[in-house]
Specification:
The chain is of the alpha+beta class. Helix content is about 25%, strand content about 25%.
Amino acid sequence: MQKLKLDHPDIVVSLDIDLKKYSTMRLDSRGDLITVKSKEGLKFCLSELTKNNMTYKVLGWGANMLLPSKSKVPYIQLDFEFDRSVFNNPQDEYVLPASASLATLTSHANKFGLKGWEVFTGIPASLGGAIFMNAGTNLGEIGSVIKEVKLITKSGEEKSVIVDKNSFTYRHNHFVDEGDVIYEARLIHKGLDPAISNKIKEYLDMRTRTQPLKEWTCGCVFKNHYDPKRDVTCRAGLFIDIMGMKGLTIKNLTISPKHANFMENRGESTYEDVLEMIGVLKKELKLQFGVEFEIEAEY
């Protein structure tokens, strides 16, 4: 990155910085960060990186991401300004930047009772990151309220995708190609319902009781496993709990006593510590249940 000049008014490059605060798990990590503040800046950034044969990753809010101790690639974080007066009243549709917070959308849904938007509840992520992995909870998945997604390709070209029933599957999208970066989305809702406020409150209360929301985690580590032969979904946290592995600790990294599919960083945990713990769990899950659980967190 030192040799690359990203000379643009809407781009800020920070070299070899402490990235700990840029991820929800707060792993010890250092690397290069590119903050981009506009669509034009993003187009320039991606085209320049591609011209120089440089790979990159989008950081978002750092949820569901495991950052290595020393990153070999630069991270891109979007920070687009937008007119927040759109949240003053309910709209039929919303066009929002990928950097918008799901917490903001949850608050808006809670205030005006937007049906469908309860799916955002309790997810500590940016809109773009949530769309990328089709984030969701027991209340549903984000893909259900996305109408259109706009991206910039690695060559700096604009790309628009109209979402349909084939656009998303469990924790996965089918339209972001390698190097694409989501910068904007058009959202819908399913009408107004005052009961949504209680639904959001009850779900947040439940998550507070059952998940370590105040700890440093990356969210769920493993995807739930679907067995098509038996038409059964195997929940990773339940299986880890059955094995009696809640509380297992490697250095300062602990399998959460509240929810076994979460790992808590209780000190100076590293990327290597997390990979070691994942290896232990995957081995035991395979040995005990014969199931290969996929990792949900990006690493």
